[in-house]
Amino acid sequence: MNWFTRVRNSLGFGADKKTTDKDLWIKCKSCQEMLFVQEYEENLSVCPRCDHHGRIGADKRLALLLDEGFEYLDLPEVAEDPLKFKDTKKYTDRLKAARANNPPDQPKRDAFVVGSGTVEGHPAVVGVQDFGFMGGSMGMAVGMAFCAGAERALTRKCPYVVVTAAGGARMQEGILSLMQMPRATVMTRRLKEAGLPYIVVLTDPTTGGVTASYAMLGDVHIAEPGALIGFAGQRVIQDTIREQLPEGFQRAEYLHKHGMVDMVVHRKDLKETLASVIDYLLPAKAKGKGKAA
After folding, report:
1. What stretches in the chain show pLDDT beneath 70?
2. Do 46 and 113 fall within a single domain?
């Protein structure tokens, strides 16, 4: 071994590089800047350069909105693959793949998760759609989970907050998925009759049958900055009406300007805003009556 090799090895230049399964960098989908993952996650998955709000999973969303100590609801099971649907893959295989991508500590049966607890001390039930599970698509399991969350809110006599993120109804369940629209609508009516606030937080993206039903039936609609919100896609609309749509069409800020969204709130301020809205909407006689879980 010559002198140069001995010096190089003693300084560590020849040592093997350490590897990690976790990516250290992520590219912002808006400004294309490379961001340090730890910094990005500490900023609630919001780009510190351009303020673009990235998508987050249901577990992170519940932890962000509910106080520590909330509980997950056991959601009802539904018949899987009732139509024996198959396209390039069997529907059952798609479900298995989607479930396999979930953390083992919080496995999900489908795209809707419900937590029961408090928001800054205010009793509340929070339902979250997870776009990471088959695009947050609405099938029977999502419809049943939505209704189960509403039932818990009715039992606790507390507000029901729903965070939407969906590509629409799930085509593999056909008409059965579309039937979840009126079922969810009935539950929002029951909440209204009971005098309980139903608050919707619209995140990116909220489209299709979800927008056509419970996403737009809230007492208050809050949207995250830049969220895509609409029924049909922009290209479909342009081809239908044969007109160029305005800049920012179907984005949260455009909908807020035109009265379809009540407020656009940064993710870091969302929990505080929800607590204020709940405090304002919930009748004085009902405050404090909801059980902690």
Report:
1. 1-22, 103-107, 283-293
2. no
β-pair partners for 202: 164, 223
pTM of the predicted protein model = 0.88
Please give the tally of structural domains in the chain: 2
pLDDT of residue 15: 47
| β-strand partners of 46 | 53
| Same domain assignment for residues 46 and 111 | no
Query: For residue 276, is it within any domain?
Result: yes
- The H helix count followed by the E strand count for the chain is 11, 9
Beta carbons of 261 and 221 less than 8 angstroms apart? yes
Judge whether 7 lies within some domain.
Answer: no
Could you give the C-alpha distances from 203 to 68, 118, 264, in angstroms and in order? 23, 21, 10
| Count of CB atoms situated within 10 Å of the CB of 66 | 23
Rg of the chain, C-alpha, whole Å:
22
Residue 162 shares a structural domain with residue 29: no
**pLDDT confidence of residue 160:** 98
